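Ticket opened by: R.M.
Priority: normal
Category: complex prediction / small molecule

The reporter submitted a protein together with (2S)-2-hydroxybutanedioic acid and asked that the result be attached to this ticket for the collaborator who will pick it up next week. Submitted input follows.
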Amino acid sequence: MFSHLPEPVLDPILSLSVAYRNDPRVDKVDLGIGVYRNSEGQTPIMAAVEKAQEIVTQTQKTKAYVGLAGCEEFNASIARVVLGDTPVYDRMSVIQTPGASGGLRMLGDLLHVAQPTTTVWLSNPSYVNHQPVMEAAGLQVRHYRYFSPETKQVDVAAMLEDISQAKQGDVVLLHGCCHNPTGADIDLDTWKLVTELANKNGFVPFIDLAYQGFGDGLEQDAYGLRYMAENVEEMLLTTSCSKNFGLYRERTGAAMVIGKNARDAANAKGKLLTLARSTYTMPPDHGAALVKTILTNSELDSLWRRELSEMQQRLKDLRSGLCNELRNIQLSDKFDFILQHKGMFTVLGFTAQQMLQLREEFGIYGVGDGRINIAGLSETQLPYVAKAIAAVGE
Ligand code: LMR
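Result attached by the on-call engineer:
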């Protein structure tokens, strides 16, 4: 049965974590997988989450099944975090999913059921898991140009030119904020132009929102997608609580469908539920119970918002700290683009060979595509990491 299976291809991000763990060097630095770390190098449990955990432990009286859609109070609350006051609630539906990856897969499966020949357009580059998930759902994948290696910013003209080839029935996947891996985001004007193209050419936007709150702030990071949601007939969206609630291992996320009308949204939800039933039946409850507890308790909600904005501010400080170190070493603004990038990641513009050199010579682990996780840095490591980047980037 299994003898013909090929050797496994390692996941480029998850395999890095294993290699890092096995590296005996004491001054090694993990800038690989996208997790937030504090100045002590820990990924802490947020105080709001700890308090919610106490409440859940004290009040939860059963571990009986919840339902195929997960916790409906979680679904309603997380939709509010993402969409705010956008007037789409009467034509949308939400299900809880195992992380945003689970949401991506469920929505990919829904697209395949709705139209097996669907082509999904991904940015080049995009999150390493986008293409495998969409292909596993049986969809075709094409790419649109996104990142300019010269400016280290979004090449908006090239992006729009490629997206304008997406036609009726195609799907265009956009990162809601904090683009993974580049850190280069589109501005509100570009969101408006893509919205215009969606309406003119008939493609469906699909938003992956995994880092809300880490860019310019919880509300600001959603302005673009909210504008789009209000102004298109149909849209798909998946969101994650891994990063902004620090619930990585609890696998907590949601998938949302905005339809032309309430009936379409309800039918899409019905189909999503049968897909969930034949995949995992229902999502794990614990993370969603914590998020619901936080979002429905004004004290915990304010605490969570405060903690998240402190994390966001620390990321900004780390970015400018790294830039300053690099400026002082290089006596140039060559790496100033790091300051303009948003969220956890930055693409340095290094080749796979240079990333290997960073890892082998300096014990600095970034992804082979040139991505480093700014949130993996600590203040004390900045001079060391800057020196290494400058040496490799010579
Ligand atoms: C990342 O890109 O590092 C994270 O989103 C973790 C993952 O699931 O790959």
